[in-house]
Amino acid sequence: MLAAHIRLLQSRLATLGRYAGPLDGTRGPLTDAAIRKALPDLGTGLPPDWQGWTARRLAVATLQLVAKSEGIDPGTIDGWWGPQTGYAANALLLKADTGRLPDWRDIAPSTANPNAWPTESNVTAFYGPHGTPEGRRPPLVKVPSPWTFRIAWNLAQTRSFLWSHEKTAASVTRILSRIHQHYGEQRLRDLRLDIFSGDYDPRLMRGSQTRWSMHSWGIAYDFDDTRNQLNWGADRASLARPEYRPFWDIWEAEGWVSLGRTKNYDWMHVQAARPD
User: Fold this and answer.
1) 259 falls in which pLDDT band (50, 70, 90)?
2) SS3 5
3) CA-to-CA distance for 166 and 131, rounded, in angstroms?
4) In CA terms, which of 23, 91, 217, 230 is 20 to 30 Å from 130?
5) Is 145 left (phi over 0), alpha (psi -120 to 50) or beta?
6) Mean pLDDT over all residues of the chain?
7) Backbone angles phi, psi at 108, to 5 degrees
8) From CA 252, how far away is CA 275, in angstroms rounded?
């Protein structure tokens, strides 16, 4: 926790009548005592063993509960500082400063590209020929998924893998593992991140007569297309909401590109190719 986060926490504790010390951004004995007094008042969602937590973990849990009370999703109330808690804490700071919550424009997509994915104009040079409806296929690998996907056009149908180009398979394996570790089975289902809308599909880009879709190389994925339609912006697409930011952060850390986060359309889509 940064000093700014602790200062905000002290301010909220003072508003609750639990803290009378200085707003100095230092988590000392007065702040820790105020946290223990305030937690029962904020305690919706606290696990039963919270009283045995360290003072630092209790402070993080209090910040999580404050965020939740102000309509910001901090993830599980567990006292651990992860990407979702970090987002919630910074959203609280922005709200305190400006009176508003962050939107998609406030999140700068990562420019990391540790796997050196090519630009869209160089995908053939990097990945080789794309697949065709007539049967030519790129070198594809079945990447097992740690959670079961439901097929968007038939939710009764399931799948336990994603097709991936052989050059992206190791990256996809790491990404799926990290997403599963972050959210867990139930949260993935609650957020509809188990709804799969497409991987390898040899076809032209929508609206183009000459350019092939990134799906034609097995280097793109779509999720939950019914709630993230092609032309929807962040005001409508579910995957633009704060609770999905760790999902996109994990993809972007491996160099993948979310068209939603970069261009504010096609929020269902992520690809291992950089826009030109």
Assistant:
1) very high
2) helix
3) 13
4) 230
5) beta
6) 91
7) -85, 120
8) 13
- pTM of the entire structure? 0.68
Beta bridge partners of 274: 119
pLDDT of residue 47: 87
Which has the higher per-residue pLDDT, 134 or 141?
141
* DSSP letters spanning 172-202: HHHHHHHHHHHHHHHHHHHTTTTEEEES---
Higher pLDDT, 134 or 268: 268
Contact criterion met (CB below 8 Å) for 214 and 271: yes
Q: What is the pLDDT of residue 41?
A: 84
State the Cα–Cα distance between residues 158 and 143, nearest whole angstrom: 15
**Inter-residue long-range contacts of 237-241, CB under 8 Å, 24+ positions, other chains counted:** 237/267, 237/268, 238/192, 238/267, 239/267, 239/268, 240/104, 240/267, 241/73
Query: Alpha-carbon distance 187 to 174, whole Å?
Result: 19
User: Where, residue-wise, is CATH 3.30.1380 in the chain?
Assistant: 120-271
CA distances from 112 to 109, 219, 250 (A): 9, 17, 11
Say how many C-beta atoms besides its own lie within 10 A of residue 81's C-beta. 17
The topology (CATH level 3) of 120-271 is: Muramoyl-pentapeptide Carboxypeptidase; domain 2 (3.30.1380)
